[in-house]
Amino acid sequence: MDYLDQVTITRHDSWSKFEQWRNHRRYRLILFTTKASLSYLDYRYGEADILLFGRESAGVPDEVAAAADARLVIPVRSGMRSLNVAVTAAMALGEALRQTSSAMKEKAR
């Protein structure tokens, strides 16, 4: 892809090593889950947030859900199936970037 030079990919050997890395840097872990009650639109995102999406079929393990600093949902109409993970990630990232880009513009003023 032509934009890979614009991103940094960090791979962790295990969940515990990821947690050590994240806690050392004071990053917040934001989990998107159908089991949450807070809408992704009502959350205030920060520049140090990590957005996490689980498998469509099973979500994330309980240990991972427990470690999340926030659990957010993208609401869908009652009785409807949840959105697929690619759509969910695009919507969530769009909102997080909208909020943090605005904050970065205000800092520059």
Written overview of the protein:
- The structure is a single chain.
- This protein is an alpha/beta fold.
- The chain has 3 helices and 4 strands.
- It has helices at residues 15-25, 62-67, 85-108, and strands at 28-32, 38-39, 49-53, 70-73.
- It has a 4-stranded parallel β-sheet, covered by helices on one side.
- The longest helix has 24 residues, at 85-108.
- The chain is globular, with a radius of gyration of 15 Å.
- 7% of the residues are buried.
- The model has no long low-confidence stretch (mean pLDDT 90).
Features:
109 residues; alpha/beta; four-stranded parallel sheet
Q: How many separate helices?
A: 3
Q: What's the mean pLDDT score? A: 90
Q: Portion of residues in helices?
A: 25-40%
- Broad structural category: alpha/beta
Order of SSEs: HEEEHEH
Dominant shape? globular
The major β-sheet equals: 4 strands, parallel
- The total beta strand count reads 4
Query: Cα-atom Rg, whole angstroms?
Result: 15 Å
Write a concise synopsis of the structure shown.
This protein is α/β, with parallel strands linked by helices. It contains three helices and four strands.
